[in-house]
């Protein structure tokens, strides 16, 4: 078993992100430790429940719990579904000491997180993200909410989870299209804040699916680490956190103007990253070489970089709509160098003006990449909006492969298809939500109650805080003592100890603690 932990340091809202395989044993232990008397309310969706429903019940065997399986998909990220979750919590007699477990992708995480943020004025929630996109983005940072008919994510709350459990085993059951969509957020993190991750992604290129387990976990940890570091510095998105919107200004506009459900969010973000990089080049911030690398990487990863069925006028109209408000300018994240992003206030009108040139450039670069010629050698036919591109004596037309998902497919204008890609259609949603009462859903014999290990397997200052808040002071001190034994320079552990050697710790407890440390670890705290 291979585990690692990362802490999102947010004062009394700090929490740990646990990475690993077979993370469920830690998940069991964590719940038993911190919610020993409360009930556990698992919110998932029908797709996830069809794969992991039995596992969830097995992992929670011996712990009072119930499971709600929602209708899957962005189209159900609405208030009706939130009400469904409220009803589920009320029927399950959830109290202030209860725990909501958001088990699924980004939609489940946002909905369950929002219900937890608002039920009884806020109860605890943990995130168990099962898609790559939710692992590297939405499960961390505390943004929760749902859509209104008037717009996406118009209602929401910041509600940090108490813990996040990331297990790459969940990704084995994810289809290629969704896995790829998650990679767009990984590329975003690399470009915006992690040059080493960027270098690794470029080196791997189109072979990203054959990364070894260890390499894969490294990539996910780096992306999550970057996100966590941004959230720590600007939890409520007053400034710095806006760099996480890299690729999203144009990406959201493409997603919206094509009609939600046509592109996956990550596919739209990949387009947005490429388009905004070209915009950055036009604004003198992003170098041409970086744009070449990004466009090549995204194409090699299998992303379409345009949705030719969507007119520029629709994209232009959607840009600048922020939560139903038309804004005049936007703090646009632009990449100055790999891993270095800057926010620049750009008038929306300027972005709109550049759109035809950006689309033309994307087409030229895409074609050049497909047929392996330098980008500058492809020449557009007629207007910037034309679907025809001339390369030498040949003319190529960009057209849709499928009605449902628009892909930039290159088709030789006259006779022959150069290349064709197809993408799986979204599964149809099932008709009605499904609540699985634990009692009804367990045909197997009653499992034995869980053994709670004597000491936690993972030691972090946040865990120590949780033990402390539950009155388990000696365990909390023991954890911090062990952290300091292994890493005497650990500043958080030192600060934790310093804070608790004042008023809150009576002298006898302190003496006992010092003696334990001296006896067990030979650690000199004198
Ligand atoms: N997904 C962007 C953020 O969490 O701020």
Explain this structure.
The protein is α/β, with parallel strands linked by helices and 526 residues long. The chain has helices spanning 24-34, 46-59, 79-91, 106-118, 132-138, 176-193, 195-204, 213-233, 248-257, 265-282, 288-301, 312-318, 348-370, 461-469, 473-486, 491-499, 507-521, and strands at residues 3-8, 15-20, 40-45, 65-70, 99-104, 124-129, 143-148, 151-158, 163-167, 321-322, 325-326, 329-337, 340-347, 378-380, 388-391, 394-399, 409-412, 434-436. Helix 15 runs antiparallel to helix 16. The longest helix is centred in the C-terminal third of the chain and has 23 residues, at 348-370. The radius of gyration is 25 Å and the shape is globular. Glycine binds at residues 137, 141, 143, 237, 241, 244. Glycine is lined by residues 137, 141, 143, 237, 241, 244.
Summarize the structure.
With 526 residues, the protein is of the alpha/beta class.
